[in-house]
TrEMBL record:
<keyword id="KW-0687">Ribonucleoprotein</keyword>
<comment type="subunit">
    <text>Part of the 30S ribosomal subunit.</text>
</comment>
<dbReference type="InterPro" id="IPR019979">
    <property type="entry name" value="Ribosomal_uS17_CS"/>
</dbReference>
<dbReference type="GO" id="GO:0006412">
    <property type="term" value="P:translation"/>
</dbReference>
<dbReference type="GO" id="GO:0022627">
    <property type="term" value="C:cytosolic small ribosomal subunit"/>
</dbReference>
<dbReference type="InterPro" id="IPR019984">
    <property type="entry name" value="Ribosomal_uS17_bact/chlr"/>
</dbReference>
<dbReference type="Pfam" id="PF00366">
    <property type="entry name" value="Ribosomal_S17"/>
</dbReference>
<comment type="similarity">
    <text>Belongs to the universal ribosomal protein uS17 family.</text>
</comment>
<keyword id="KW-0694">RNA-binding</keyword>
<keyword id="KW-0689">Ribosomal protein</keyword>
<dbReference type="InterPro" id="IPR012340">
    <property type="entry name" value="NA-bd_OB-fold"/>
</dbReference>
<keyword id="KW-0699">rRNA-binding</keyword>
<comment type="function">
    <text>One of the primary rRNA binding proteins, it binds specifically to the 5'-end of 16S ribosomal RNA.</text>
</comment>
<dbReference type="InterPro" id="IPR000266">
    <property type="entry name" value="Ribosomal_uS17"/>
</dbReference>
<dbReference type="GO" id="GO:0019843">
    <property type="term" value="F:rRNA binding"/>
</dbReference>
<protein>
    <recommendedName>
        <fullName>Small ribosomal subunit protein uS17</fullName>
    </recommendedName>
</protein>
<dbReference type="GO" id="GO:0003735">
    <property type="term" value="F:structural constituent of ribosome"/>
</dbReference>
Length: 88
């Protein structure tokens, strides 16, 4: 898995749930400019990501990378943990 295959998308977000085995739910927020009012709006989306060693906890800031489908919902994999427990 160390060899890179093409251009994989990466996202940075915060873990919101770690209750599943080897799976975490990651919330990713981005700012989008409204086409008419030119005001920036926060948009958020949640991804289910594969966490092989169950290292992530709720509130951790992580980087996830796109991968092949691992289950019905999982298409992302945790690449690294940037910060432990951002939310106290």
């Amino acid at each position: 898995m160390n060899s890179e295959r093409g251009n994989q998308k990466t996202r940075t977000g915060v873990v919101t749930s770690d209750k599943m085995d080897k799976t975490v739910v990651v919330k990713v927020e981005k700012l989008v400019k409204h086409p008419t009012y030119k005001k920036y709006i926060k948009r958020r989306v949640t991804y289910k990501a594969h966490d092989e060693n169950n290292e992530c906890g709720i509130g951790d800031k992580v980087t996830i990378v796109e991968t092949r489908p691992l289950s019905r919902d999982k298409r992302w994999r945790v690449r690294e943990i940037l910060e432990k427990n951002v939310i106290v």
